[in-house]
Specification:
- The chain is mainly α and 459 residues long.
- The chain is built from 18 helices and no strands.
- Helix 4 runs antiparallel to helix 5 and helix 12 packs antiparallel against helix 17.
C-alpha cells in the first residue's frame, strides 16, 4: 500500500521540521566541531601524543558516517522521529560516560563511539526528512537546517571554554551530554509524512477505513518518495562512485582545521580567551556562507555541481593561506575566509547528491555516501596528526587538508563531464527517431527502393 504521488509540501509544517533539524544540527555537528577545545585538556591529562588524542575525534567521525546506512534503514523501517530520539539518548550516554575519564581507550568508546553513533542517528534522519518535505525550496531548506551547526558553534566556543574553566573537562562533558537530551524533543516534532504512516499501516496489517483515517491522511502532506527498500546497487552507478570518492577526500580535510585551529593559536602565543573567539568567528561566517549559498542555489542560476566545485577550490586556497598567519588578527582573517567557503560547500553538497541519484534513491544514497565517506573521516585526523608530529608544526596539518581538497575537486569535474556526456548521448539517440517520424513518406520511399533493388538481384 503506497501513498499517491504528490508534490512535497514545500512549506507549512515543513518549516517546523526545518527548525527541529536546525536544533539537531546544533546539538550534534556543532558539538563535534568545537570538540577541539577539549583536545589539549585531554592530551595533557593522559600525557599522550597529538596523533593518539586525535583518535577520539577520528572514531566519532568514523562512527558518525558508518552509522548512516543503519540510521537510513531504520528510518525506512520505522520513522525519522524514532531514530532521532534514539540518537539523542545515545549522544547523552557517550558524554555522560566520558565524564568518568578512565583512560584513553575508554574515551574512544564513549566520546568517540557512542557520541558518534548518537550524532549519526540524529543527523542523518534530520537531513533526510527535510529533503522529503521540500522540493523547489530544497536547497534553501537544507541551508537553513544546516545553519544550526554554525549558530550553536558560535556560542558553544566561549560557552565550552567557560565550562572547562569552571568544572574541568570532565564536568563539561557531563553538562554537554545533558544539553544534548534536547535532541529527543526535536525528534518528537519531526512528524512523519502521510506516506510513512500508510506504509506502517500496511506493514502492521491494519487497514484504514475510508470513513475516517484514510480521509484524514489524504488531507495531510504526502511525500512523492515511495522507495521503501535500501538500494545497495547504487555503488554500481559511476556518477555515485565519483561523488563518493569526492566525499572521502573532502572528509579527510574538513575535520582537520577545527581540530588543529586551537592548538595552532596556542603555538602562536594567543591567549585562551582570544582562541575561543576564533571558533565563534568560524561559526559566524560559516552561518552566513550557508544562508547566502542556499539562497543563491535556490535561484537555479548555476548548476549545483559547478557551484560545489568552485567552493571546494576556494576552501583549499584558504587552507593553504591560513598557516601564513603569525598573530591573532591575521589568523582571524584567514579563519573567516575558510569558514565562509566551508559554509557554502555544506549548503549545497546534499542537494548535489539528490541531483546525482534522484529523490527515489536519496535515502539509500545518503546512507551509502556517509558510509563510504567515513574512511576519509577515519583516516584524515590521525594522518594530519602524524604529519604534525613529524613536522613539529601544526601548520603542516592545514597544508595536508588543502592539498587533499584540490584533489577532490578533480572528481567533481570528472562527474560533471560524465553527466554532460550522457546528456549529449541521450539527445543524439533521440534525433534519428524524430527524423523518421517527421518525414514518414521519405522513409517509406527509401524502404521501397531497397526492396526493388533486392528483387532485381534475385531475378
Amino acid at each position: 500500500m503506497q501513498a499517491k504521488d504528490r508534490n512535497p509540501p514545500d512549506g507549512g509544517y515543513g518549516w517546523v521540521v526545518v527548525v527541529s533539524a536546525f536544533m539537531v544540527m546544533g546539538l550534534t555537528a556543532a558539538v563535534l566541531k568545537t570538540f577541539g577545545l577539549f583536545f589539549v585538556e585531554i592530551q595533557q591529562h593522559f600525557d599522550e601524543l597529538a596523533s593518539t588524542t586525535s583518535w577520539i575525534t577520528s572514531v566519532a567521525i568514523a562512527i558518525f558516517h558508518l552509522g548512516a546506512p543503519v540510521a537510513s534503514s531504520l528510518c525506512v523501517r520505522y520513522t525519522h522521529r524514532a531514530v532521532v530520539i534514539t540518537g539523542g539518548l545515545l549522544a547523552f550516554s557517550g558524554m555522560a560516560l566520558g565524564f568518568l575519564g578512565l583512560n584513553m581507550v575508554w574515551m574512544y568508546a564513549t566520546t568517540g563511539f557512542l557520541q558518534g553513533l548518537g550524532i549519526s542517528f540524529s543527523w542523518t534522519p534530520a537531513v533526510s526528512i527535510v529533503s522529503h518535505y521540500f522540493s523547489k525550496k530544497r536547497a534553501l531548506a537544507n541551508a537553513i537546517a544546516s545553519a544550526g551547526e554554525c549558530a550553536f558553534a558560535f556560542t558553544f566556543g566561549p560557552f565550552f571554554q567557560w565550562l572547562i574553566s569552571q568544572y574541568g573537562w570532565k564536568g563539561a562533558l557531563l553538562i554537554i551530554g545533558g544539553i544534548q537530551l534536547n535532541i529527543c524533543v526535536c525528534g518528537v516534532l519531526m512528524r512523519p509524512l502521510a506516506s510513512s504512516r500508510l506504509l506502517e499501516a500496511s506493514c502492521s496489517g491494519t487497514e484504514t477505513s475510508p470513513g475516517n483515517g484514510a480521509s484524514r491522511m489524504d488531507k495531510e502532506d504526502v511525500s512523492p518518495i515511495t522507495q521503501k527498500t535500501f538500494n545497495w546497487m547504487l555503488v554500481r552507478r559511476p556518477e555515485f562512485v565519483l561523488y563518493a570518492v569526492f566525499g572521502i577526500l573532502a572528509a579527510m580535510s574538513f575535520f582537520v582545521p577545527p581540530l588543529f585551529l586551537v592548538p595552532l593559536s596556542y603555538s602562536l602565543g594567543i591567549d585562551e580567551s582570544w582562541t575561543a573567539s576564533l571558533l565563534s568567528i568560524l561559526a559566524m561566517v560559516d552561518f552566513a556562507g550557508r544562508l547566502l549559498c542556499g539562497w543563491y542555489a535556490n535561484l537555479h542560476v548555476t548548476k549545483t555541481v559547478h557551484l560545489l566545485t568552485m567552493t571546494i577550490m576556494l576552501i583549499s586556497t584558504s587552507l593553504m593561506l591560513l598557516p601564513l598567519a603569525n598573530n591573532y588578527l591575521s589568523l582571524a582573517i584567514f579563519t573567516g575566509f575558510y569558514g565562509f567557503f566551508f559554509g557554502t560547500t555544506v549548503a549545497v553538497h546534499i542537494t548535489v547528491l539528490a541531483d546525482v541519484v534522484g529523490m527515489p534513491d536519496f535515502d539509500s544514497a545518503l546512507g551509502l555516501f556517509m558510509l563510504i565517506r567515513s574512511t576519509g573521516g577515519f583516516v584524515g585526523p590521525p594522518l594530519a596528526g602524524l604529519i604534525v608530529d613529524m613536522a613539529g608544526d601544526y601548520r603542516a596539518g592545514f597544508y595536508m587538508a588543502g592539498a587533499t581538497l584540490v584533489l577532490s575537486a578533480g572528481f567533481l569535474v570528472t562527474l560533471d563531464q560524465l553527466q554532460q556526456r550522457k546528456e549529449r548521448g541521450s539527445q543524439t539517440n533521440t534525433k534519428p527517431e524524430k527524423s523518421i517520424f517527421s518525414y514518414p513518406s521519405l522513409h517509406l520511399v527509401k524502404l521501397q527502393n531497397r526492396r526493388y533493388q533486392e528483387h532485381d538481384v534475385v531475378v
